[in-house]
Design a protein that fits this description.
The complex is a heterotetramer, with two copies of chain A (229 residues) and two copies of chain C (229 residues). In chain A, 14% of the residues lie in helices and 28% in strands. By secondary structure, chain A is an alpha/beta fold. Chain A has one domain: Glutaconate Coenzyme A-transferase (3-Layer(aba) Sandwich). In chain A, a hairpin with a 3-residue loop joins strand 2 and strand 3. The radius of gyration of chain A is 18 Å and the shape is globular. Chain A starts with 14 loop residues before the first helix and ends in a 10-residue tail after the last strand. The N terminus of chain A is likely disordered. In chain C, strand 1, helix 2 and strand 2 form a beta-alpha-beta unit. Chain C has five helices and eleven strands, in the order H-E-H-E-E-H-E-H-E-E-E-E-E-H-E-E. In chain C, the strands form two sheets. In chain C, strands 1, 2, 3, 4, 8, 9, 10 and 11 form an eight-stranded mixed beta sheet that branches. A three-stranded antiparallel beta sheet of chain C has the order 5-7-6. Classes of the chains: A alpha/beta (229), C alpha/beta (229). Strand 5 of chain C pairs antiparallel with strand 5 of chain D.
Amino acid sequence: MSSAGTRERPTGLTRELIAMRVARELRDGMVVNLGFGLPTLVANFLPPEVTVLFQSENGILGYGAIIQEDARFDQDRINAGGQPVEIVPGAAFFDSAQSFAMIRGGHIDVAVLGGLQVSEKGDLANWLVPARGGGSIGGAMDLAVGARCLVVAMEHVTREGEPRVLEECTYPLTAVAAVKLIVTDLAVIEVTPEGLVLKEVAPGLTAAEVQAWTGARLRWTDPVPEMRL
Amino acid sequence: MSSAGTRERPTGLTRELIAMRVARELRDGMVVNLGFGLPTLVANFLPPEVTVLFQSENGILGYGAIIQEDARFDQDRINAGGQPVEIVPGAAFFDSAQSFAMIRGGHIDVAVLGGLQVSEKGDLANWLVPARGGGSIGGAMDLAVGARCLVVAMEHVTREGEPRVLEECTYPLTAVAAVKLIVTDLAVIEVTPEGLVLKEVAPGLTAAEVQAWTGARLRWTDPVPEMRL
Amino acid sequence: MEKVFPSAEAAIADVFDGATIMFGGFASAGSPTTLILALKHKGVQGITGIANNIGIGDRLDDLCESFQLKKMVCSFAIRASSAAKSRFEQQYRQGLVELELMPQGTLAERIRAGGAGIGAFYTPTGVGTVVEAAKEKRTIDGRDYLLEYPLRADFAFLKAHKADRFGNLVYRYASRNFNAVMATAADVVIAEVDEIVEPGELDPELVVTPSVYVDRIVKGDRHVIRWYT
Amino acid sequence: MEKVFPSAEAAIADVFDGATIMFGGFASAGSPTTLILALKHKGVQGITGIANNIGIGDRLDDLCESFQLKKMVCSFAIRASSAAKSRFEQQYRQGLVELELMPQGTLAERIRAGGAGIGAFYTPTGVGTVVEAAKEKRTIDGRDYLLEYPLRADFAFLKAHKADRFGNLVYRYASRNFNAVMATAADVVIAEVDEIVEPGELDPELVVTPSVYVDRIVKGDRHVIRWYT
């Protein structure tokens, strides 16, 4: 199953469409933390009837759009990705110890993190590419163990076509048995006590094709619906 | 040494004078926590050139005089003894977890607590009279282990003439080896690694008389000066 | 995510017999009197209460009128002075209600741990006293500490000054005390406030309890409590 | 108790070779740039730095110009992307500087413990990852935790918005971050601020860092840092 290395990469959803699919998981009133990169895009695709509060681990509950105008840049008003952000009505500020008390204490409904690898037990690896060394943990390990629901948004395979969803992660872990839902450019996969369940496939793909690009056994019930966008 | 029970109680300083003597221990810029009862009076006797910040474990740094006027009573603006207090310029408020982080973390320069018994090793008993049962710990145990300098202000003997300064406390302890200075109506006693050192005696008393009312061995160098008021 | 309830009765409607309830407040400051009196009126039985104090500047003692309390976990319950006994004290002395006393800082830190996802912590407070009974003791860097576990509750009853409709809370003076920590450590958090405002009307720099912690808000009645030693 | 210093140079005059220094800030928000640049100018060597990050929106990387850093303790140091390498990253890859990475919440909580008199604490973060290497693991209530110890430093360099002359600090937006916890956990705490005011000019409800924690205040220069992914 992990011998996909030489095949051409499948054509899946764009990053924006992955983010759009993740956004559908969010419900009105939720408190949500979005990690660096792809997860950040989720904020752009909230259904109009859904109001969520975005938490940023650097000490904001209630940030809004990224500020583009240079004149309104303020280096103290940034999210955890360093981006200048709007503050929404009903926001609150706090320090890092309070922020991680909030995160570790189970008060964040959903965290959306990027991933390098996810195992069929829900282990997540996202902080270090061994070949590159160094690494940065940031808030990822706390968010992974603390959020009530951890969603990983990532490309289904590496640039080289290697699966990122595996029986066991080969990269150093961020957290063990933490991931609940995997949303990729090819599929939506739920992590259950019985293993990985393929819930949705990207338009034009079959369940068997997704399985071929996946390094762990998927279970599904035919017909597997297309990803809801 | 502990057979003082049948003698007439010695005449020592008033509670106000004990408080006045304690006040001389305070230096400009110190952060000070005053316990219930006698210690509260210390605030009234600060030398004019000394400005200290009073911390109250219910969440105030910088409270001032007790408010007497009924019209200005505010049930949210009280010290840890429940007394309505003024808030001084430069004050700050915080919650109980933060307050005890401040106390336990060694940020309070001086705590002045009342005492039932103090041992020659600096053990303090002040939260429970066994015969009365029940008891209330309040902030005393945290203040006793957390303050950089713990001063106990109390009567030298019980109503029945039993010494309160002892080789070993017989009441349940508040903290072990915590007390640095004992100020009573009869004497000022320093707790040192070598035992109790009699530093000052109340006007009209000799060191030997103070020793007779004390249930542990005192050391001193003649002449022992009168208490500085 | 509507959090504003029409009455205290509605806000506490699902409190059940045998529930564990945290009550904010320190003496008269920040005590949730409207919610306490609604609980008295509702008449649920077998309550385990967690509060800094009972019977001093709070109305918790009212719950003893109909013997609603099974147990109190607090730092201050039995007054040292010969002041009038509370109903709680009377019932405690008759063996009709249990009392678990602990140091105030340990109580606050245990509640914080309960809300912050901390599994346990070592505190120096209580070493060498009755508090250490049956607790794990550990020497760290030459100092002794006791292992203390987190505290959580089914419900927390809070009193704040203002809330916005999202549930952000601001307090006044010394009324944050245990309210701010208890907000983080209960399954259902109910706040009575003097005033309810729209999101955006509270300065986010002033918010002490971010909205994520608060489930229900109700406008409280004005109860003046005059209590001090 | 004069805490206001005439210059950053004067405020850091006693920082010594081999000192451990905490630096507040999270990327560009609340980073003490004036103090960092004064430290660079002063040229002390062998510094162990404790900060959330280095080389992303801070000027800490400037300390690598003259190899002043011996070690960094932080959560974010090496960027995952192929962005330009910081001097720190270059020196790290050459083995010229040590890096101790840890989860951001663990870093914040360890610093809080250092300031709050907590001997150690159990956190679920990092279980099953490289973070647990050589650490005590304990199962509490069915969940695994790692034992983490407090962090303290010789100096803390902070950035706040305003200080009063007593040392009370207020922040703006997301700039509290690590500043507010580091204020509690160093022997000498030095804050650079945009504005110094008289005691009483700051709303005590708004004070985030009470004056007891701050030893020295200096008016900082304005350094605009534009950094975001």
